[in-house]
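// run 5 | inverse folding | seed 20
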C-alpha cells in the first residue's frame, strides 16, 4: 500500500496535455526570423521525444515497479513524446535568444479571424513581444 500514493503522483504527472499553440518570442525579431530559427531547431525534436520517453520509462520502473510503471508511461506515450519534442526545440531556440510564448485563447481566436496579411502582422507583433491589447497601438 505504500506505493499507492507514489503511483497516483506518477500517473497524474504522466497525464500532461499536448503543448498548445505558441510562438517563439524575441524583441526585435520578425516572424521570418522566428520561422528560420524553428526550421534550424526542428531536427532536434525527434531525439528530444525519444529521450523523454526513455527517461520516463526508467523513472517509472524505479518509482512504481517493473509492471505498473511502464503501463502508466505507455498509456501517456504520445503526450510525453510531444512534450519532449517541444522541450528539445525550446532548448535550441533559447540558444538563439528566443523564448516560447504560449498564445492565449483570445490571441488564437484573433489570429483565426484575420486574413493572411493581418495574421502576419499580428504574428510579427506577438513574436516581437507584443500582446493582443497592444496590437495596432504602436
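// decoded
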Amino acid at each position: 500500500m505504500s506505493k499507492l500514493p507514489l503511483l497516483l503522483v506518477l500517473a497524474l504527472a504522466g497525464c500532461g496535455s499536448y503543448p498548445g499553440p505558441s510562438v517563439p518570442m524575441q524583441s526585435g525579431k520578425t516572424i521570418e526570423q522566428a520561422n528560420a530559427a524553428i526550421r534550424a531547431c526542428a531536427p532536434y525534436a525527434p531525439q528530444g521525444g525519444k529521450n523523454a520517453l526513455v527517461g520516463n520509462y526508467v523513472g517509472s520502473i524505479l518509482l512504481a515497479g517493473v509492471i505498473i510503471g511502464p503501463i502508466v508511461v505507455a498509456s501517456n506515450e504520445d503526450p510525453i513524446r510531444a512534450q519532449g519534442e517541444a522541450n528539445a526545440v525550446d532548448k535550441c531556440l533559447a540558444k538563439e535568444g528566443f523564448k516560447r510564448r504560449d498564445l492565449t485563447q483570445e490571441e488564437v481566436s484573433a489570429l483565426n479571424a484575420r486574413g493572411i496579411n493581418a495574421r502576419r502582422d499580428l504574428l510579427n507583433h506577438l513574436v516581437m513581444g507584443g500582446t493582443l491589447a497592444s496590437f495596432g497601438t504602436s
